Amino acid sequence: MSVTMVVGAQWGDEAKGKIVDLLSQEADIVARFNGGDNAGHTVVNDFGTFKLRLTPNGFSNPRTICIIGPGVVVNLATLSGEFETIRQAGIDLSQRLWVSPRCHVVMPYHPVVEAIYERAKGSASTGTTGRGMGPVYADKVSYNGIRLADLQDQGIFGEKLEIQLRVKNALIKASGMEELDFNHVFNQMLERYAQMKALVRESFGLVQKSLRENANIVLEGAQGALLDNTWGTYPYCTASTTISGGASAGLGIAPRFIERVIGVAKAYTTRVGSGPMPSELNDANGQILRNEGAEFGTVTGRPRRCGWFDAELVSFSARLNGNTEIALTKLDVLDKLPKIKIGVGYRPKGIRGDLAHYWEGEAEWLEDYEPEYIEMDGWMQSTREVRQFSQLPAQAQAYIHRIEELVETPISMVSVGPERHATIQVK
Ligand code: GDP
Ligand code: IMO
Ligand code: MG
Question: Any idea which ligand is nearest the CA of 20?
Answer without folding.
Answer: 1
